[in-house]
Amino acid sequence: MRTWLLRSAALVTAAGAALVAGAVPASSGGGDVTTLHPVLTGAAERPGPGDADGRGAFAAVVRGDTLCYTLVAVRIEPATAAHIHIAPPTDPGPIVIGLATPDPVSHGCITAVPDGQNTTSTLTESELAALLADPGAFYVNVHNASFQPGAIRGQLR
């Protein structure tokens, strides 16, 4: 299992690096790049239980006001949703942003919008600033029919 996780994390991190090279719009401004790359497991789900067999990896690259990501979810029933939430590792928390549902892979780029224009499909400038200031306060999880609260989860780092 550990080998699979290491390979998946390396693959997703490489995909994230490719996003920086080609997909992050020049209009996103700023040269600073931040990467986020948690491994997702059923054991990390809160309040749990998550899918004990499920595994996943997430890689995100933030440059300026744009977050680009790749999400992989395997060994779970078909995913029905994926999100970034805000909460410490011990608790569930509210959705901050919706992500494309992995089948078993998804990817996309999200550009932050001005505060006051938030929905679950957008990311505000203040939410992006909070995520960059304290990534560990956020997590990614993937949901499916059998594990509606979440099948797999990984705290950002």
Tell me about this structure:
The longest helix is centred in the N-terminal third of the chain and has 21 residues, at 2-22. The strands form two sheets. Strands 1, 2, 3, 4 and 7 form a five-stranded antiparallel sheet that branches. The protein contains two helices and nine strands; from the N terminus they run αβββββββαββ. It has one domain (39-148). It has helices at residues 2-22, 125-133, and strands spanning 33-36, 39-41, 55-63, 66-74, 79-86, 95-99, 105-111, 138-144, 152-155. The protein is 19% helix and 36% strand. It starts with a helix and ends with a strand. With 157 residues, the protein is of the alpha+beta class. A hairpin with a 7-residue loop joins strand 8 (138-144) and strand 9 (152-155).
Quote the distance from N terminus to C terminus. 21 Å
The ordered H/E elements are HEEEEEEEHEE
Would you tell me the structural class of the helices and strands? alpha+beta
Strand-residue proportion: 35-45%
Rounded Rg? 15 Å
The helical percent reads 10-25%
Overall average pLDDT: 86
**Total strand segments:** 9
Number of helices: 2
Question: How many structural domains does the protein architecture include?
Answer: 1
What oligomeric state do these chains adopt?
A: single chain
Shape: globular
Largest sheet entry: 5 strands, antiparallel
What is this structure, in a nutshell?
Helix content is 19%, strand content 36%. With 157 residues, the chain is of the alpha+beta class.
Helices and strands in order:
Blueprint: H1 2-22, E1 33-36, E2 39-41, E3 55-63, E4 66-74, E5 79-86, E6 95-99, E7 105-111, H2 125-133, E8 138-144, E9 152-155
Antiparallel strand pairs: 1-3, 2-3, 3-4, 4-7, 5-6, 5-8, 8-9
